[in-house]
Amino acid sequence: MGHLLTSQSLQGRADRRPGLQLFALVLSLAASTGHSNAVAGEPPSPASGQEESAASPSGPCSETPAVEYPAEQLTRNQLKLLPAASEGPVPDVIGLMIPGRLYRESVQPYPGANAPAGPLDSLGFWILFVGDHGTQGGIVQAEWSLCSGKQTLETRQLGPESLKAREHPLIAEQNPELWSASHHLLLPGDLQADGVVYKVRWGGQEPASLTFHLPVERYEQKTALRLPLDEPARVEAGHLAVEHHRGEGSQWFALDLAGVDATTLAAVRTSDGLDNENFHGWGRNVVAPGSGTVVAARDGVPDNPRAGKGLDPKEHPELDDPVAGVAGNHVVIDHGNDEFSFLGHLQQGSIAVAVGDSVTQGQLVGLLGNSGNSSGPHLHYHLMACGQPFRCNGLPVRFEGVEIPYEGTFESYAPVRGTVLVPR
Ligand SMILES: [Zn+2]
Description:
This protein is mainly beta. It is built from seven helices and 22 strands. It has two domains: 36-218, no CATH class; 233-423, Glucose Permease (Domain IIA) (Distorted Sandwich).
């Protein structure tokens, strides 16, 4: 359920290349069909071109210098890759990475889960090439290496079949101008991995390659955050692999939270209807997950009357703030430490705070709604590094005071799609 900020986010690219507008639409479509590869780590690739090597100080991590990415390249949250090295006649392509900065996200089990021992981190990223990647026989191989400084911890080569499996199906079908590969690694939490070297090879008569060395960080959340809802909620969409939030970097770690019946913790709807009133979450309190200052508070965006198609911003030019057409009524809280909470799709007329207000953790900011590009009543939440979506990186987030009511071994241990979160 729920697609928030997809088409807007890619506008910056559309400015440069007309064909990219289609991509924006493609990603919006992807919201409704998104499937996830879950936190399953990088599965072994099919036989073609696969190769692994043990830790070595002489692999790609030592051969390819890390490139510092200037801050201005992170605007619109789309990092234009600067190749660290190239070979051969490189085609006219634009390389992009989503998100603009690679963060390891802790998937440490929440209380109540019966999960494997030891901390784990997930690391997800998309590599996209726009333009003439079809020349010279196309991209025939990619290779990632996980680095600890100049030491290469692991290298994995991906042949055509493996790459095809990582391509977004709708992108492949509808926009041949784009080549994409999504990667989702699961790392032991104590693994000292601080970089990824990514190499793409073109085939044909004059083989060529581009290599990038991307820094990887483990983000330490600064703000103590609670669940922004008072009652149990189910994650209707998270941020695994190709889920729709992963179409844009500020939402890289976003969660769509739908209210569930407080007794069964199962039903999202009170009856079979699809009107907003048929949803348990509709009108529930949305509260500040952490203290701070309100830097955006938008009201007046009409509620979509029922679950289904969200509001199309193009049909509502009167919504002068383009974010509002997508995010609906929303509140952004500056936590005072370069962390900002974004709460979207709130009910029209329910916004209880104004720009400049100080809020305390747990204070009411609005009611759960269905405004903007929302496919049903739910709260979209994400933490980000600036006060405006699309303009900066999303940040990994972990709530305090939350339990996941599962008991089975290996059942959900992190807030992924389908997980119920219960405030304690
Ligand atoms: Zn969302």
